[in-house]
Amino acid sequence: MIDTKTLSKNKREKIKKQLDHNYIPCLAVILVGENPASLSYVKGKEKACREVGISTITITLEDRITQEELIKLIDELNIDNSVDGILVQLPLPSHIDEFAVINAIDPSKDVDGFHPSNVAALYLKQKGIIPCTPKGIIDVLDFAGVEIEGKYAVVIGRSNIVGMPISKLLLDRNATVTICHSKTKNLSDITSKADILIAAVGKPLFVTADMVKEGAVVIDVGVNRGENGKLCGDVDFENVKEKTSYITKVPGGIGPMTITCLLENTVECFMNRKVLSNG
Ligand code: GUN
Questions:
Q1: What's the whole-model pTM score?
Q2: What residues does 56 pair with on adjacent strands?
Q3: What's the gap in Å between 250 CA and the centre of ligand 1?
Q4: Which pLDDT value is given to residue 114?
Q5: Ligand 1 surroundings by CB, under 6 angstroms
Q6: Residue 72: active-site member
């Protein structure tokens, strides 16, 4: 099992030292509605920020807020010089167009890397903010010493948050990448050839032992509630782990790394803005 806890801890200590009370970046977090999972994610993000010396402003809005009101708030945060990063927790209520909201965020404050400018930068190999979870996955693979170049990587899931960007990052590291999704035929024929298997499906225990190659590296990005109400990943960990050379567990694997990368992205936005304001 990859010790992502130590990696996360080391990275957070490094950020704390780097900031060292001299620099205090400010992250604005917007939470719309009362989705319990979102509330818990936001609390985790606030706590992690506090621990490394990043200040946070959390703005909690009622479910029935209009898209225009939400965008107006983002416009205000965009021009507020004391705010370095803006994060809108997803998902948003169905009457709000998520893309319109993401488009409204100043790309230089887009700590999630979801704005089209940052997405384009990733696909064109230009400088930009890289989404937190995919960035965390690459860090975890590097930390474990997994060679990516020349390997066959299979990604299950094609979301904008994980599946698509992690596929691009793996490709940039010279892996051969296949993206699978809900319409993929003979899924286990494909996954069972993978040297590196990334599960980002959102279905509890979706990846079973027969779908995994002996000695594969398996990264579980799923965060699901199992039948017993407990948090579980996309991978049937207990049975799959025997076959793998490296595996991550849920909870505890990729989740904390996502938050660590959010801290790094917030510092990056802050530093970029400082350089800009110094001329
Ligand atoms: N909802 C689930 N994952 C994420 C994430 O990485 N960022 C935001 N803003 N919302 C999410």
A1: 0.96
A2: 27
A3: 17
A4: 98
A5: 87-90, 112, 132-133, 161
A6: no
* Residue 67 annotated as catalytic: no
Q: Where are the alpha helices (DSSP H) in the chain?
A: 4-19, 36-52, 67-79, 98-104, 116-123, 132-144, 163-172, 187-191, 237-240, 254-277
Which pLDDT tens digit goes with each residue over 131-182?
999 999 999 999 999 999 999 999 999 999 999 999 999 999 999 999 999 9
Residue nearest to atom 8 of ligand 1 (CA): 89
Which residue ranges in the chain fall short of pLDDT 70? 279
Q: Give me the catalytic one of 84, 106, 110, 112.
A: 112
Cα–Cα distance for residue pair 170/148, rounded to 1 Å: 7
- The vertex-20 CA angle with 264 and 4, nearest 5°, equals 40
Ligand 1 centre to CA of 112 (Å) is 7
Pocket test of ligand 1: the residue of 112, 129, 166, 265 to mutate, having most ligand atoms within 8 Å of its CB, is 112
Residue to mutate (ligand 1; options 30, 41, 258; most atoms within 8 A of CB): 41
Annotated catalytic, 106? no
| Single-letter residue type at 134 | P
CA gap 46, 231 in Å, rounded: 21
- Tell me the C-alpha distance between 38 and 156, whole Å: 23
Cα Rg of the chain (Å, integer):
19
- The strand pairing partners of 59, in sequence order, are 30
Check residue 277 and give its pLDDT.
80
Give the distance from CA 124 to its chain's centroid: 20
Q: Quick one: which of 216, 116, 133, 122 has its CA closest to 169?
A: 122
| pLDDT at 173 (0 to 100) | 98
pLDDT of residue 218: 98
